[in-house]
Amino acid sequence: MINPREYIEPGSSWPLGHAVPDQPATHTVKLNINGQDVHLKIEPWVSLLDALREYIGLTGTKKGCDHGQCGACTVLVDGKRINSCLTLAVMKQGCEITTIEGLAKGDELHPMQEAFVEHDAYQCGYCTPGQICSAIGLINEGIANTRDEISELMSGNICRCGAYPHILDAIEQVKGVAGHE
To answer: Where would I find the H helices in 7-69?
Structure first.
């Protein structure tokens, strides 16, 4: 049997029978976000999504399900798309992280952002940042060559408004896929 007296410093006034609160262990992590180095002092269990939104103030990346099922939190890490809600921020030290806020160059939108606007590839817009980052990652992967392949490989990003045909049109425009319906 564990003797709680062994875990409480002598002379402390913590009442026996109550849990001794542990101070959360924080880590300093250096992240490269949208081309800028950011140093954060965070707990090891903080997700990349929460680090971006709550610690840095980049709220373009959305929290949808917080379980990796909707894709609203998609960001690019070293050019590859990931669900930031499933990734611990401390795991991405030294990686290049790009959010929706980091795509435009000044007033000039990224070509994928322009295509989404041109094709009305959004309605409410909540999923749009994740859709755009996922689409850019998809093109970076270089494995989707047809509309059906694009659709399949974008299936991790849910649009509750149903703008899928327009989203596919925008991706095809940027990718330059022929055979567009």
So the answer is: 48-50
Domain count, the chain: 1
Query: Which residues form the domain of 163?
Result: 27-175
- The set of residues, in sequence order, having a beta carbon less than 8 Å from that of 160 and lying 6+ positions away, is 124, 126, 127
List beta partners, residue 127: none
Residue 19 lies in a domain: no
Question: Does any domain span residue 21?
Answer: no
Q: Is residue 17 part of a domain?
A: no
- Whether the CB-CB separation of 146 and 179 falls below 8 Å is answered with yes
pTM here is 0.84
Instruction: Return the sign of the alpha-carbon dihedral for residues 160, 161, 166, 170.
Output: negative
Mark out the alpha helices in the chain (DSSP H runs): 48-50, 111-118, 128-141, 147-153, 164-175
CATH number for 139: 3.10.20.30
Pairing relationship of beta strands 96-98 and 36-42 according to DSSP bridges: unpaired
Q: What's the CA gap between 120 and 152, in Å, rounded?
A: 21
> pLDDT tens, 18-44?
555 666 688 899 999 999 999 999 999
